Amino acid sequence: MAEMTDHVARIQQAWAVERPDLDVSPQGVIGRLHRLGNFLTEELVAVYRDFGLGEGDFDVLATLRRSGPPFELAPGELADHTMVTTGAMTKRIDRLVEAGLVTRRRSEADGRARVVALTDAGRELIDRAFTAHVDNEQRLIEPLSAAEREQLQALLIKWLAEYED
Question: Which residue from 102, 39, 115, 108 is spatially nearest to 75, judged by alpha carbons?
């Protein structure tokens, strides 16, 4: 492998001097993934901001949109699909209701339950925002060839399966 001189490599080189008894090679993978994750998050969030959305707002709207007609879910289902607590979900929904992007109402099937649904304005906004998001993701993976993308995806699927249910 070619000599690496990125930030992570410099950290590893310093540890090799200070703690030659330790194998710090995992830092090469973990450190780069962490740094890349931070960079990618910044790039993704910038697109959401272009549409007046935070990361959590985008996540809720996208979850409702991909649920298909009638584009509604119970708050608990939204929390499950977005991996946040129901308390955090309530705050997100409150913001989106206030912005006119979703509604909250009693379920027709169970009057005690609540349902959150996209409004027409919410659906129009998430359709535009998601198109820009996908274009941005395409831009972000451009440095990798199609074969590299497939290889990386296969490796990430294998690794992530170790941590997901």
Answer: 115
pLDDT of residue 86: 79
- How far apart CA 84 and CA 73 sit, in angstroms, is 15
Domain that holds residue 95: 26-161
Query: 3-class SS at 38?
Result: helix
pLDDT digits (tens, 9 = 90+) for 125-134: 999 999 999 9
Q: Which residues of the chain have pLDDT under 70?
A: 1-4, 111
Q: Is residue 8 part of a domain?
A: no
CATH assignment at residue 36: 1.10.10.10
Contact status, residue 63 vs residue 129, Cβ threshold 8 Å: no
Is residue 6 in some structural domain? Answer: no
